Amino acid sequence: MTPSPLAISELFSVAGKTVIVTGGSRGIGEMIAAGFLANGARVIITSRKADVCDATAARLAEASGGDCRSVPADLATVEGIDGFVAAIADEPRIDVLINNAGASWGAPVEEFPEVGWDKVMDTNVKGVFFLTQRLLPQLEAAATPEDPARVINVGSVDGIRTPTFDTWSYGPSKAAVHALSRQMAARLAPRNILVNAIAPGPFPTWMLSTGVGTGGDVEATDWDAVGRTVPRGRVGTPEDIAGAAIFLASRAGAFTVGDVLTCDGGIVVA
Fold this sequence. Notes:
The protein is an alpha/beta fold. The chain is 41% helix and 13% strand. It has one domain (10-263): NAD(P)-binding Rossmann-like Domain (Rossmann fold), CATH 3.40.50.
């Protein structure tokens, strides 16, 4: 008997899911959070700066008419992670965890400091592992064989190809995220928790604006010029990255396990 295919509205639905987006106050994290809110999910965002996190949550909630909760935390330390987990202890179940919080550091190889190595590795790798570890009970509470819980780790094309900038710890940290995602996927899939990664290319974010020389001024950056270096001829949009995350979090992505999904306009293949 041939099963009836699901309609798009069911196949890609994330309505009613509780979603955590780390680093959700700006950049790719904010784009992903907005995408889930627009499609009926309830979203918890976290970032280090409480005022910025609170303001973004309020703005996203107003724009979407949805429920966006701000829980500020420093996820680069185990103490910060434990504080965040304690703050959301009232959440009985987490359907989707998106480990997006990230840091970078640029300096010539001869001058690259230990603090730049440790900050990036602690935020981008250690934080991903220990937050996921601490939230396993709430992820398992949401997980069923028919609708597994999801962990989506945000890596980077710089973890696949040689980075353009002298960000010596960033590329290795993102390669580690990809490897960690595959190992987590193998161990957690039998527990109905599916782990995948997304490797974004250039998006109009504060972090990339610092790399291209505008010092974090997103509005002043010539994103058209950056886009001309991409085979697709543009930088990424909120729809691109939110769409990738929603695919992995929905029924459409329920048989995708341990993948590193590039969302880069063709940079890696080119």
